[in-house]
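ARCHIVE RECORD
Type: protein–small molecule complex
Small molecule: 5-O-phosphono-beta-D-ribofuranosylamine
Source of inputs: curated submission
Record status: active
Notes field left blank by submitter.
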Amino acid sequence: MSKHPINVVVLISGNGSNLQAMIDNINAGHVDATISCVISNNADAYGLARAQHANIPTAMLNHKDYTDRASYDNALTKLIDGYQPDLVALAGFMRILGDDIVDHFKNRMINIHPSLLPKYRGLHTHEQVIANGDKEHGCSIHFVTSELDSGPVIKQAKLTVSPDDTVESLKQRIHQLEHKLYPEVIQWFAEQQS
Ligand code: GRF
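STRUCTURE (tokenized, with ligand):
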């Protein structure tokens, strides 16, 4: 364990099952971190309710309220900076971020992606695995850089694709891997800070 819990801000857009895995692992003492805020760009994100249930502050920043990407990213940067996080963790945050915000949080912003990067950047990864008959699939956590899903990979988890797998079964199986991998990587990051 590191000397102090690290301060994490989590960005979400949807269900927030990875957020839940972080919360559960922090509460169980497996991850030496505190989540100071969960930020969403989508008011209907179920992850906001998960955060509220865990007494974690939440904030909404809707990209539709901004005329361009730069002004949204600027507002998001200021909002995140207000919490002075050691780490910004993207967990199903469905926004492409511009160069300025990515540079601002260089080496302290990470993302989880449901593929074995560099394979299958972007959306519909499970569909591509099935269509290409891949034998292996997995998920990756990487530092965020200005090119989508392309920053240095920190850690991956893999599974063997079975002939019976469907897009839905892969989605569920990958989520199970993600829920173990993300807390591990946050703990790794915390240990680097001590
Ligand atoms: C995960 O599969 C993650 O890899 C991708 O978005 C999904 C988020 O799921 N970036 P959840 O909202 O954490 O349940």
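CURATOR ANNOTATION: Residues 20 and 50 are 7 Å apart (CA to CA).
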